[in-house]
Design goal:
Layout lengths: L7 H9 L5 E6 L4 H12 L3 E7 L1 H11 L7 E4 L3 H10 L5 E4 L4 H9 L12 E8 L4 E6 L9 H17 L6 E5 L10 H14 L7 E6 L1 H5 L1 H6 L12 E3 L3 H14 L3 E7 L5 E2 L7 H12 L10
Parallel strand pairs: 1-2, 1-4, 2-3, 4-11, 6-9, 7-8, 7-9
Antiparallel strand pairs: 5-6, 5-10, 10-11
């Protein structure tokens, strides 16, 4: 029997069972949902929050919303992203969390030459999506950073997503390279990339996963769609990981699911020297808590600081 990816209920249980708290540097703490999420995570003994931002704003919002700040350390700063990254660089935090700051501001701080968070890997967002109606869980990448990844960048994004899948309990995840069609045509270059990456996988260049592509979303997700369209293969209808050809298709797909489906989700950045809790500034408290639970899977209890 092929085991599915662990869902958020399991991630919560795993985080509850940890032997010690994980220090988390929050870039932009002046936000209700951010404060609620880190408060709940701290109360469950998951994390020790280090809130970076204007102290007066953080304290005002916490007071207005009735959120206790005891045990939450505040770094009063006009540059929350740079200050949060500095906490990781100095060994005070093991996870970086995007709060009420823009993605460009956070990435500038992460990619700064002095940040010590750059590793040479492609930095990408991996989202864990859970659809209770279908009892389906899958990872999506890259949904937040790379605008038009090259084939080599796609390979690195694949490696990151496979690593997350393996930490979620699937030792050899099934990976779908997505396109608008399963047919290969020069008018859709992403189908050519998908076919080439599948060939490289079959040649043994991508160990630890099973790859198929190009596949449309329905063929990667639903077994009945694959059956009706007579598309066979080890990944069709059963993908653990969905890899998108570009940021436009990824962003539109993910947000369409988030806002129209009964689902649970959370996301993180891979490729940096530490896990980065990373979702939209518009996200809910529960999504931020989900994202923290997901990021914690990438931190061992006795992991040394960067």
């Amino acid at each position: 029997m092929i085991m599915p990816l662990a869902g958020f209920d399991q991630l919560y249980r795993d985080a509850d069972a940890r032997a010690e708290r994980v220090p988390v540097a929050v870039a932009g703490g002046a936000d209700r949902t951010v404060l609620e999420a880190v408060r709940r995570a701290a109360d469950r003994d998951w994390i020790t929050p280090l809130l970076c931002g204007r102290a007066a704003d953080i304290e005002r919002i916490a007071g207005d919303q009735g959120i206790a700040l005891d045990g939450l350390r505040i770094f009063d700063t006009p540059e929350p992203a740079a200050t949060a990254v500095a906490q990781v660089r100095e060994g005070q935090a093991r996870i970086l969390m995007k709060g009420q700051v823009s993605t460009p501001a956070l990435m500038r701080a992460v990619l700064d030459a002095d940040s010590r968070l750059r590793t040479g890997r492609v930095i990408c967002q991996v989202v864990l999506m859970e659809i209770p109606r279908d009892d389906r869980r899958f990872l999506l990448a890259d949904t937040g950073i790379c605008v038009q990844p090259s084939p080599e960048q796609k390979l690195d994004i694949l490696r990151s997503a496979v690593g997350v899948a393996q930490r979620l309990g699937v030792l050899e995840p099934r990976v779908a390279f997505l396109a608008a069609s399963e047919s290969v045509t020069e008018s859709m270059p992403e189908t050519l990339d998908a076919l080439e990456l599948q060939r490289r996988s079959q040649a043994g260049e991508l160990p630890g996963c099973t790859v198929q592509g190009p596949l449309s979303f329905d063929l990667a997700y639903a077994a009945d769609a694959a059956e009706k369209k007579r598309v066979a293969g080890p990944v069709a209808g059963a993908a653990d990981v969905l890899l998108f050809p570009n940021l436009v298709s990824a962003n539109l797909t993910v947000k369409a699911i988030m806002y129209t489906a009964d689902c649970r989700y959370g996301g993180m950045l891979c490729g940096a020297a530490c896990p980065v809790v990373f979702m939209s500034r518009a996200d809910s408290t529960s999504t931020r808590l989900n994202s923290l639970a997901l990021a914690i899977t990438g931190v061992s209890c006795r992991q040394s600081m960067p």
